[in-house]
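Hi V.,

Quick status before I head out on leave. The structure for the redesign project is tokenized and pasted below; the design run finished overnight.
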């Protein structure tokens, strides 16, 4: 089994808006991290980054207000399917696509994997469809390209040997994390936006706008109780050395 981190562009923004403790007015490139796991029996993609419109001539038509809130830096070579090819996998090998949640920087490229089964929680879809009526992080254009079955679970869901989905609500109602366990005993957990930085996860400190602070805090406690290395989606320091694709672990 192999686990890769894929840097699928950046959000150039005032980092104080995302990362607690930073002074206002300091601009920075916040990474948009997706992950891929090759199980030997198919590839799982966890989060799909931004829609391909971000590197096209009419991005504002797709992103709306998000186009002015963030400067989206995602050239075509940084789209999740291109990063996957750079890791040595083809889109035809992708068997599962899992979205931690449905914000635009986590669910924009599901359509790039038409042969995969998409795992988006039903409660997340219900919330996202309502949220998209007044766009604030969730985009109707992204939702229109989803092809997810009516599926959900309460606490955990074993997707395949070594791949477990964990319910981590708080940032959004149907947020989920991915726990990857290797045959050598090492474990990793891709936490999505349960919190934006590694330190915030370790401190059990929700970041950004949450739908429930209490749920978010409890989800962070659940994640740190795992015997696993934490892989964030947006921590500038954690991913400073990754500009495209990085192998995290292989057995």
């Amino acid at each position: 089994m192999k686990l890769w981190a894929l840097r699928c562009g950046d959000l150039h923004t005032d980092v104080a808006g995302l990362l607690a403790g930073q002074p206002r007015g300091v601009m920075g490139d916040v990474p948009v991290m997706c992950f891929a796991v090759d199980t030997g029996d198919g590839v799982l993609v966890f989060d799909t980054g931004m829609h391909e419109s971000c590197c096209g001539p009419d991005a504002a038509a797709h992103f709306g207000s998000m186009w002015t809130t963030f400067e989206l830096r995602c050239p075509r070579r940084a789209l999740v399917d291109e990063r996957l090819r750079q890791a040595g996998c083809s889109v035809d090998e992708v068997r599962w696509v899992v979205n931690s949640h449905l914000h635009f920087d986590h669910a924009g490229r599901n359509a790039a994997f038409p042969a995969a089964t998409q795992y988006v929680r039903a409660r997340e879809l219900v919330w996202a469809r309502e949220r998209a009526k007044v766009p604030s992080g969730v985009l109707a254009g992204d939702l229109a390209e989803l092809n997810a079955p009516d599926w959900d679970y309460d606490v955990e869901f074993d997707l395949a040997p070594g791949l477990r989905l964990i319910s981590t609500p708080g940032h959004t109602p149907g947020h989920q994390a991915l726990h990857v366990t290797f045959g050598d005993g090492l474990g990793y957990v891709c936490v999505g936006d349960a919190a934006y930085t590694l330190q915030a996860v370790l401190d059990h400190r929700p970041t950004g706008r949450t739908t429930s602070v209490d749920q978010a805090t409890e989800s962070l406690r659940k994640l740190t109780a795992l015997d696993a290395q934490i892989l964030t989606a947006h921590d500038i320091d954690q991913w400073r050395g990754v500009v495209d694709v990085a192998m995290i672990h292989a057995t």
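Above is the designed sequence. The radius of gyration is 16 Å.

G. will cover questions while I'm gone.

Best,
W.
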